[in-house]
Specification:
homodimer, 227 residues, alpha/beta, Arc Repressor Mutant, subunit A, Rossmann fold, 7-stranded mixed sheet, two-stranded antiparallel ribbon, 9 strands, DNA-binding
Chain lengths: 227, 227
DNA sequence: CTGCATTGGAGTACACGTGCACAAGCGCCT
DNA sequence: AGGCGCTTGTGCACGTGTACTCCAATGCAG
């Protein structure tokens, strides 16, 4: 939704709204594959992810004509195609800056490695944390914040995760970009400024709750009126 | 975007897209207030949150005509109005189910209490974790999962947070709703099914990264073509 | 091999959200 | 007291995304 117009590649033009849904399809397909399903109809898959079947078909048709009429989509094949489109078939090294509670949660989150994301660096300024080994599978050692540029350069990191307090976020963001990172995942509760060409996605945990509170308040208001 | 049409209240009709931006405005205004600003123009505030000034003004005008022409918006006053609209002026008790890394991160997240959210229950099935005291300010004790219904009922909890593994999420969700919860914040990587009238917001950490990977792959593809 | 039922894919109409531009209103300065 | 400049608020047109409908392709059964 941010994403300046110029950024939108004209090559195959997949709408942003569709891109946002592709990972959801991917997730649902993985679940189906684990359950042993070989084929799935647009109707079934749509129900599983909570969209209409028409939307699902339109989304998938943007990627190509995978799927056979009269039968549906072959789970494995579709899964591969979506993975390829999302870039999940290749290896994405990433760094996480800030090893607080959230940083640890991210480092321990199992859903990364299975999707091609590999944590190659954990960085924190606190000397007490530096040296600590974190992560369930790959034991990654926390390194001092000063080595940020080294880690990024050595491993060719293109994606950086900011899990620092708000006051440190912008500085970290600038350093990441200067070192060569071009996609930022920001968990700090502020809008980070980036030069054009750099993608940012922000997730603010408190922000999501506020949206829920808004709807909840509306529900309460309506009930009062009704009574 | 999910949200069935019938759900959209006709009372004052604030578009969903605007609701999603209000917390961002709120956040920026808090930062401005801390910096000592008394008034702010739509241009300034828009720049701070990364939207156009027209969009910002239109959003704010939906709430009412706060702000004086020729001057701008009074920070404190606008902050109060947005807070009220979002329901941040009242107290929202909430429970967090699943005290893993993410659950801890949420429990320790400082941004909740200042926005009216109060964690009244931490629940986990693991006996080793039960009894542990978590949280920086309010020391909340982890209680066994069986007491979910008790906690929800006693404190009148309307908002529930699911921070469990995927396989446990749907069952927890059902129990929360049965106990009286009407808004679900879901961090488990799956789409939870809920009856109509219940709001759900899902945040999948891995999902966001996949969107970034998609854009990054597009950038790489374009560079290859160019060279 | 033929007919039928099923299902993906394309085309179309509509609604929502966005950006632009202008008018209305407030405060300040002369 | 009056005009001038600044900023808000809003009507309108545009583009994007979504929902709906139709059609043809395809597998399966007889």
């Amino acid at each position: 939704m941010p994403l300046p117009r110029s950024e939108r590649t004209a090559t195959t033009a997949v709408p942003e709204a569709t891109v946002a849904r592709l990972p959801v399809y991917h997730r649902a397909l993985v679940a189906l594959a684990e359950r042993g399903a070989t084929t799935v109809s647009s109707e079934e898959l749509a129900a599983a992810v909570g969209v209409t079947s028409a939307k699902l078909r339109k989304d998938l048709s943007l990627l190509g004509s995978y799927g056979t009429r009269g039968v549906g989509y072959e789970v494995d094949y579709l899964l591969y195609q979506i993975s390829r489109e999302l870039g999940l078939t290749q290896d994405w090294p990433l760094v996480i800056v800030g090893v607080g509670n959230l940083g640890r949660a991210l480092a321990n989150y199992g859903g990364f490695s299975s999707r091609g994301f590999r944590i190659v660096g954990l960085l924190d300024p606190d000397p007490e944390i530096v040296g600590e080994k974190i992560g369930a599978d790959f034991l990654v050692e926390v390194r001092p914040l000063d080595e940020l540029e080294d880690v990024v350069t050595e491993a060719g990191v293109l994606i950086g995760v900011i899990a620092t307090p708000a006051h440190a976020a912008q500085a970290v963001c600038d350093r990441l970009i200067a070192a060569g990172v071009r996609s930022i995942m920001n968990f700090a509760p502020l809008v980070v400024a980036v030069p054009p060409g750099v993608s940012v996605r922000s997730v603010d945990l408190g922000l999501e709750l506020q949206v829920l509170a808004f709807h909840e308040q509306r529900k309460l208001g309506r009930e009062e009126v009704r009574s």
